[in-house]
Amino acid sequence: MVSKWRQRVTKWMTRSLEVPPDVMMDLPRITMIGQLHIYIENHKGLLAFTDQEVRLLLKQGQLLIKGSHFVIKTILPEEILLEGEIEKVMFIDQ
Amino acid sequence: MKNIWMYFFTGTVQVVIEGKGVERFLNDCIREDISIWNVRRRQDNAVLFTMRLQDVQALRIVVRRNECSCHFSKRMGLPFWVKRSKRNIGFIGGIFSFFIITFLLSNMVWGIDIEGAEPKTEHLLEKELKKIGIKTGAFQFFLPEPDEIQRKVLEELNEVTWIGVDVNGTTYHIKVVEKKQPEDQEYVQPQHIVATKDAVISKMFVEKGLPMVGIHEHVKKGQILVSGIIGTEENEQLVGAKGEIYGETWYVTTVEIPMKTKFEVLTGEHKSKYKLSMFGFDIPIWGFGKVDFAQFEKERIEKTLKFLHWELPVDYVRETYRQSEEVNRTYTKEQAIEQGISLATANLQEKLDEQEEILEEKVLHQSFENGKVKMKILFQVIEDIVETKPIVQGD
């Protein structure tokens, strides 16, 4: 109940104060360079990693990236740079 | 992004982890602040990643917490290179000693080339050079500069008028001009001997020609002393007059000697510093500490080091600090006069030949003003007054 209410407040604040939503709401910021690179900030951990699939934990839900020849170029507590041939990026709500 | 290149120097390892919960292992690594990169899954489900060598201790904690098995598959970077090269010490040593030996050999003297000297002089010269230290196998950076060699050798060898020292790579080329007048020409064209200046003849030796003047006779400049026309009037012959004629001449010189002079003298105390100079920076090798002379003269000699025929951007520098002192010298009047005479005599002597001499000197006039002695000195000199003048046919 409290968290829902807080979410609503932050949503309202971002809209009215024009603060970037990834800062306010702890959302992932995803940058892709073609199909080659995907750079994700604000992830919360690695859930699965194979050649064809990477699953990342987010604050809310998960991020599923599908493709082939995946190599994690860098991984830091909140950032990850993935290289390979990216086909799909999906958000999975829980 | 991090600069992975820098990790080359600290060393990196490639880790293989196998088993369950590989993702958890990776998350743990990140939480422990181990930076990992190039994470890849192999066909057999093992995961490979690269990490820094210094994080291996932290990795142990992660391994203990997880069930995965873990081993290192590749060791990269400088620390491992060094380790490996320790095993091949002979090879590395060989490379280094090759460069060191080539460098040393490039800075040695390998040849001394003496040009223009007779065997006897050459031998003397070689001996002299050896004394200075120039011989095959000597290191060039310990040897004096070419002009210093020139000066030293010239001082020691009387047989030599001039030498030129030139360093070309590892060879010293030495050009010698010996003290020897060229042989007189066999044929002398018809000529008179005339006087170079006003003089009184003091000595006369005529080899060829007709003497026109006698001893103690006063002659004017340009006067014919020995005629090239000999024989009776009917049977005239032209010869090249030849002879040695010395006359008494006079010189008047003025000298000025200050009564008080201030000058610097070296006390003999000195200190040397040796340095390597690279791109304008000096790296001291030997001779540390401050120079505690109140007054000194500094001399800096630079030698460029060579490698094969290249000059390295490194100079071998020797700095010598010589302690100096300021000395005030005061002459009495008598001393000043004496000094003036000897100075004037020395100046004149320099212009004269070996056979010419100063007979006597007379102080004509002397005055003391502004702390200086001004003197006019008359010198009586015996000198060669021979000048040849060709006889023009039809005169």
Provide the number of structural domains of chain B.
4
- Report on the biggest sheet of chain A: 6 strands, antiparallel
Share of residues in strands of chain B:
over 45%
Mean pLDDT of chain B: 85
Major sheet of chain B: 5 strands, antiparallel
Number of strands of chain B: 22
Strand order of the largest sheet of chain B: 11-9-15-21-20
Number of domains of chain A: 1
Sequence stretches where pLDDT stays below 50 over 5 or more residues of chain A: none
Task: Describe this protein's structure.
The complex is a heterodimer of chains A (94) and B (395). By secondary structure, chain A is an alpha+beta fold. Chain A has one domain: Immunoglobulin-like (Sandwich), CATH 2.60.40.2000. Chain A is built from two helices and six strands. In chain A, β4 and β5 form a beta hairpin. Chain A is elongated, with a radius of gyration of 15 Å. The model of chain A has no long low-confidence stretch (mean pLDDT 88). With 395 residues, chain B is an alpha+beta fold. Chain B has four domains: 79 residues, Alpha-Beta Plaits (2-Layer Sandwich), CATH 3.30.70.2280; 68 residues, membrane protein fhac (Ubiquitin-like (UB roll), Roll), CATH 3.10.20; 134 residues, no CATH class; 67 residues, no CATH class. Helices cover 24% and strands 46% of the residues of chain B. Chain B is built from eight helices and 22 strands. In chain B, α6 crosses α7. Chains A and B meet through β3 and β5 of A and α2 and β2 of B.
What are the defining features of this structure?
heterodimer, A: alpha+beta, Immunoglobulin-like, 6-stranded antiparallel sheet, elongated, B: 395 residues, Alpha-Beta Plaits, Ubiquitin-like (UB roll), 8 helices, 22 strands
